[in-house]
Every structure is written in C-alpha cells, then in structure tokens.
C-alpha cells in the first residue's frame, strides 16, 4: 500500500481531550475520530488492527468448537420483558420506537435473543452441547463514556453463548472458553489474568474477568507470580479432553482485584513472597448463569430419559474494540505505538527518504512489489515529506519493522532494517532484508 494513496490523518500535537495514552495515540496515529460522545469512526489504520484482533478471536472460538452467526443490533423489547431485564437495565439501554410505535432497543448484550434462537432450533439432549457466537456492535448509554474506545457507548464485542443439558455440561463449556481466552490474549502478546468477579447485570453464579496487564490499567490486581510466567501457547490444548487441570491450576493460584472483598483468602492462599501486585484492563468476561434466561424464555430440552429441562447457559464476552486500546496501553513508548506482529496493521513500513532520487525510487518500488508478492503487508511511504517527519510518523504508527532507503545506502547496495520494539538497526542488502522478514 502506498502512503500517497492511504488515508492516514496523523496529528503532530496531542489532542487535549484525550486523558490516557492509548486514546492520545489512537487519535494521533489517525486510527479513530470521534463521531459523538463515546462513538467513534474507525479510520483505515484503526480498522485494520481491529480486523486482525477479530480474526485471532474468531480462530480461537472456532478451535474451541463454537459456531459463528450474526444477530441484529436492533431487538424487540418483547423478549426483554419476558426475562425481566427491560425494566432492570435502566438508562444504559438505548430505547427506540419504530413507525408502528413498537418498542425496540439497540442491544447492549444478547442473552434473550440467542436463547430464543436456540429454543427455535433445539428440542433434545442431542442438540447440546452448543456454542454460538458473533461479532456485533453493542450500545450501552454509559453515564461517563471516557478513555476513547476503552469505555465507549458503541463498542464491538465478541459474544458467545453456551447451551448444555446440565450443570456439568455447562462447566465443560465454561472451561473451554476459559482456555480459549488464555490462548486468544496470548496470541496478541498480552498477559491475561482471569480474576473471579461479580456478575453484574448479566447475573449468575460464577464469573471471571480477564484482565490484561498494563501499567496504566484501571484495575489493581493481586496474583501469584507463577500465573504471570505461565505461557499457554507452550502447552498443547485439546478441546475434546477435560480441561479441568488447566483451569484448576489458574483458579488455585488465586488472583483478585481490589474491589472484591477477599483479601483474607488471598493472603491465606498465596505466600507473601509469591504475591505480585499489578495493574490490568478488563478485556473479557465469562459467566455461568444456569437457567436464568432459559426458564423465563422457556428454552427446554428433553433429556435421554424423556424429562423436559431448561437448558444451562453461559455467556462469554470479549471487548474487541477495547482491545485495540488495551494493546496500545501495554505496548508503546515516547515515540508512539509498538504493535505486536500478530495484530499490526502492516508488518513493514518502507520509507523512501529521498523520493526525488530515481535510484531510491527504483529500489523502493522493487522492494514494495517483492514484499507484496511474498504476502508481507507493507505501507510504503512514497511521499515527499522530510526524512524527519517520515521517521516520526513511522514510529508513531508503530509497524513492527521499518526498511529505510536513502541515496547513500542505495549507492553502496544497502538498506536499513529497523526493529521498532528494540530500536535495533541493521545495514543489509535488500535481498537479505527480505530474507530476514520472510524467515
Ligand atoms: N453478555 C456478556 C458476555 S457475552 C457481557 O455483556 N459481558 S460484559 O458486559 O462483561 O462485556 C464483555 C466485554 O465487553 C467486557 O469484558 C469489555 O471488554 C467489553 N466492554 C464492556 N463495556 C464496554 C464499553 N463501554 N466500551 C468498550 N468495551 C466494553
């Protein structure tokens, strides 16, 4: 992609309305623009990152055996009256009326609708277990939307729902999602700590919040140091087997946030020299709530013995748009963003520092084509800005690798390969630079 044809409205100054670093950097890097309070336009660079995050989440949901579907954003109030949440949700729910004066709402979550979908298609124990998920925009009319996409009013969520015949089945689904979440966040280079949590308006008996570690996070959390070192991607995960040992390991090492009242338990469970205190950002939340929705919405299945029972359910959310901000909170420096390779909008930034020089241009054009042919995504700065402005912009948008092409190097047959995260630079032939990126 040529920068001259890419819509990238970066800013030199830090916008005064942004209080936290991810919000500042997303505005400065031309990733988002506010449309109205807590509602954002996603510009090409921000959208590309969000799509990469979505794809990792999708691959891990599929690996765990979940099926992707899509529900509407606008829902009828009817099902919400049946579950009792139409009144309970209060002002956070955006309510609208259609031309026939029917009460509708913009979904803040989808337990009611998915229960109705399951009910319409499932009759017996043969139809469970079922795991259904979607990526869909949610609207919650937060009193104080703030911190950019981290606490928006409109935000993109992955929401998954599980259906099982009994408690044991539901726990197996809960454990699958628990492990899928560990893998999902690890693939984004994030350290995610599951913390037992309050279940809030979703309700239910058991819930874990997944907090990713970032020094600037809002949540203070306490945990066992072994959980910080644990790497789920080092271990084989087979979703057809019981995942109890992995989940038990995590829950027995005990993590808590400062807003749960369990300091005493934590101190009893975790020896003083193994406790660590960190800050985190909630990027996912999983819930088991049994028959809370299936009973009022009458989602019953028949058991092997012919008995009719309400299905046991859980729901499992990931804040996809929030993750874009959370990753920046975890990975940035003075100069800008430092994308992990797995979510970077482009893997390579190709910088021509003398675009008027025909040799530089020929070298860049050739590298651009060969990178694209090799399937390596590249943003090619072919503009006539000053070298200083080009370097600053590349560092700001944080692509993992930069290839800098200038007249002196081209004469000597070399380009400079820079690694954004370490700042390490190497003079290489264009061929060696390509080989290194392909390795
Ligand atoms: N129905 C369940 C899970 S499917 C649910 O709604 N859970 S939730 O309320 O905890 O939201 C799931 C995730 O969405 C949260 O962990 C968080 O990462 C994200 N999220 C929630 N509210 C916002 C918000 N206002 N802005 C951005 N992301 C949000």
Task: Summarize the structure in words.
- The protein has helices at 21-28, 44-63, 77-83, 85-88, 111-121, 167-187, 225-229, 244-252, 263-269, 320-330, 358-373, 387-397, 407-412, 430-438, and strands at 32-36, 39-42, 67-68, 74-76, 94-97, 103-106, 130-139, 154-164, 192-196, 206-213, 219-224, 256-257, 275-290, 300-302, 308-310, 312-319, 332-333, 336-337, 348-352, 378-381, 401-405, 415-419, 425-428.
- Strands 3, 7, 8, 9, 10, 11, 12, 13 and 16 form a nine-stranded mixed β-sheet that branches. A five-stranded mixed β-sheet has the order 20-19-21-22-23, sandwiched between helices. A three-stranded antiparallel β-sheet has the order 4-6-5.
- The mean pLDDT is 95.
- Helix 1 crosses helix 10, helix 2 (44-63) packs across helix 6 (167-187) and helix 2 (44-63) packs across helix 10.
- The protein is of the alpha+beta class.
- It folds into two domains: 3-337, BirA Bifunctional Protein, domain 2; 348-438, Anticodon-binding domain (Rossmann fold, 3-Layer(aba) Sandwich), CATH 3.40.50.
- Bound molecules: 5'-O-(N-(L-cysteinyl)-sulfamoyl)adenosine.
- 5'-O-(N-(L-cysteinyl)-sulfamoyl)adenosine binds next to strand 8, strand 13, strand 16 and helix 10.
- 5'-O-(N-(L-cysteinyl)-sulfamoyl)adenosine is lined by residues 109, 140, 142, 151-152, 155, 157, 159, 202, 282-285, 315-317, 319, 321-322.
């Amino acid at each position: 992609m040529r920068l001259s044809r890419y819509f990238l409205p970066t800013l030199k100054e830090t916008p005064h309305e942004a209080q936290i670093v991810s919000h500042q950097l997303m505005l400065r890097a031309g990733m988002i623009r506010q449309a109205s309070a807590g509602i954002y336009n996603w510009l090409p660079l921000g959208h590309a990152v969000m799509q990469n995050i979505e794809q990792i989440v999708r691959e891990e949901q599929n690996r765990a055996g979940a099926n992707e579907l899509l529900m509407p954003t606008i829902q009828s109030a009817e099902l919400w009256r049946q579950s009792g949440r139409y009144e309970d949700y209060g002002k956070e729910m955006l309510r609208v009326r259609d031309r026939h004066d029917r009460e509708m709402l913009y979904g803040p979550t989808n337990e009611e609708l998915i229960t109705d979908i399951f009910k319409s298609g499932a009759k017996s124990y043969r139809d469970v277990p079922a795991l259904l998920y979607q990526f869909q925009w949610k609207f919650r009319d937060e009193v104080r939307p703030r911190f950019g996409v981290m606490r928006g009013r409109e935000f993109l969520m992955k929401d998954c729902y599980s259906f099982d015949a009994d408690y044991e089945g539901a726990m197996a689904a809960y454990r699958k999602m628990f492990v899928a979440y560990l893998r999902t966040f690890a693939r984004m280079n994030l350290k995610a700590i599951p913390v037992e949590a309050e279940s809030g308006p979703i309700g239910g008996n058991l819930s874990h919040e997944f907090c990713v570690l970032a020094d600037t996070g809002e949540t203070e959390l306490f945990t066992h140091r072994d959980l910080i070192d644990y790497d789920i991607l080092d271990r084989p995960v087979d979703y057809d087997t019981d995942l109890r040992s992995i989940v038990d390991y995590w829950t027995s090492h005990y993590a808590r946030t400062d807003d749960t009242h369990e300091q005493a338990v934590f101190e009893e469970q975790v020896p003083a020299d193994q406790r660590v205190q960190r800050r985190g950002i909630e990027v996912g939340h999983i819930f088991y709530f049994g028959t809370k929705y299936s009973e009022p919405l009458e989602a019953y299945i028949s058991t092997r013995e012919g008995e009719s029972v309400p299905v046991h359910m859980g729901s499992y959310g990931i804040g996809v748009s929030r993750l874009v901000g959370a990753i920046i909170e975890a990975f940035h420096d003075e100069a800008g963003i430092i994308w992990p390779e797995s979510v970077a909008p482009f893997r390579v930034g190709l910088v021509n520092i003398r675009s008027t020089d025909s040799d530089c241009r020929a070298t860049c054009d050739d590298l651009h084509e060969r990178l694209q042919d090799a399937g390596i995504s590249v943003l090619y700065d072919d503009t006539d800005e000053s070298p200083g402005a080009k370097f600053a912009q590349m560092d700001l948008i944080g692509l993992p690798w930069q290839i800098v092409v200038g007249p002196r190097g081209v004469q000597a047959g070399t380009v400079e390969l820079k690694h954004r995260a370490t700042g390490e630079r190497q003079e290489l032939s264009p061929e060696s630079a390509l080989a290194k990126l392909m390795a």
